[in-house]
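Encode chain A's predicted structure.
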Amino acid sequence: MTQRQVLLEMNHVKKSFDGVQVLSDISLAVQEGEVVSIIGPSGSGKSTLLRLATLLERLDDGELIYMGEAAATSENGKSVYASKEKLKQLRKVFGLVFQNFQLFPHFSVRKNITDALVHVEKVSQEEADSRAEKLLAQLGLSDKADNYPYQLSGGQQQRVSIARALALQPKILFFDEPTSALDPELTGEVLKVIKELAREHMTMIIVTHEMQFAREVSDRILFMEQGVVVQEGTPDEIFENPVERVREFIGKLG
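Encoded structure for chain A:
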């Protein structure tokens, strides 16, 4: 079996806000094609970990490495970041899907997907339109290309935001509670899309409170609480053989 490339490494990550430690000494490595779900109670640091991984927040200490290239290294108990130019390159490795869609309300669905491709990535309009068309077809939204976000359901908006992230052809896709803004009926259609991506071996890191979904889709699950990883393992290990705290958490949700 060929050794899969490690796409993301986070080593001994620490983060505080206003003197309150939110993450203490978290390490994570994600291989190509792997789906990792992060679960745990509110306030456990899950979303902060994602924001650090996607360069929306800065580490206090620890390392952040994409495909062997360091975005941040640890020196004398403090994270030191790479140059702006290097970080710009590393940002191309990943895409991020937010819980509240973050679509541009004044852009059509097509323009929401193609705008960054054309203006930031300098992809030709023709190529950008072609990518958008393919993704909209894949996500069952071909007939919505000329609609505006307000004309779509929440589930459709979230599928557009997934298409927008995929259009940039990232190596890793991050999802921060992708269904938390949706009602149960619409949640299913978004989870179906993510399951489909998993079948296509898209590398994904998903912060979710949907336990059954995490169990079905993940290669590995991390349970976080109070800024540390309490248990990490396969879905079977987490659900069939949980440590006491994880059992309690899963039991409450059941």
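The two ends are 38 Å apart (CA to CA).
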